Amino acid sequence: MHPGMVFLVGAGPGDPDLLTLKALRAIETADVVVFDRLVSEAVLALVPKGTARIDVGKQPRHHPMPQEEINRTLVALGRAGRCVARLKGGDPFVFGRGGEEALALAQAGIAFEVVPGITSAQGCAAALRLPLTHRGLATGLRFLTGHCRADAALDFDWQGLADPRTTLVVYMGHANIREIAAEMIAHGRPASTPVLVVSRGTLADQRHLTSTLAAIGSDIARAALPTPALFIIGEVVSLRETLGADSHGETAQRTAANH
Q1: Which active-site residues does the annotation give?
Q2: 20-47 pLDDT, tens per residue?
Q3: Architecture label for domain 121-257
Q4: CATH fold label, 5-118
């Protein structure tokens, strides 16, 4: 039996044109594709006909296949000599739990390789022509997961997150954005700090909404944007006016303004 190989592949934010060449080769040559909920249909359409597929997608508070079982599945496939493309939305090592899968594979002695992908922060910002750092506005960039394990209380470095020179990108923050915004204001970040929400970034049905820390909780509730949604917080968002808005995704902004 040939030794198995598992590729932990970043499938990017959704647009298949943003895949790396290495990611595409892994998809095209795999015996089995194991994929998450956030891998877009357009990316899955690149999987050759006849290739086995295993859907291990998880949703908030609904995990049909727990992470431990996903780990065991990858190890079992590797031991069976299969070539596996494990597709994850964005980058596998940025809030993708790729590190846990890598540890499980390493401990089981299964060969694996990490194929980085464009993470959602990069993809969504580029789709709206928005720099995440900019001289005079933002000298730092932080990525934050918007929820804690097992729905525990949020326990973040609020003082650090309130730094006005830092752009903050919040992943998976839809349910807790009101609390996150309130804590940032309480720790000194101005309530007028602009916030950009991008829903289904880089896809044909991408939508976005511009707000402030003070208003984001109520604005996001009214707009009812579909998930996944990404929050970009910081003065760089003010550059949207100068760089020019296009028609892509303006529906959400108009909808929020009309309420």
Answers
A1: 36, 58, 172
A2: 999 999 999 999 999 999 999 999 999 9
A3: 2-Layer Sandwich (3.30)
A4: Cobalt-precorrin-4 Transmethylase; domain 1 (3.40.1010)
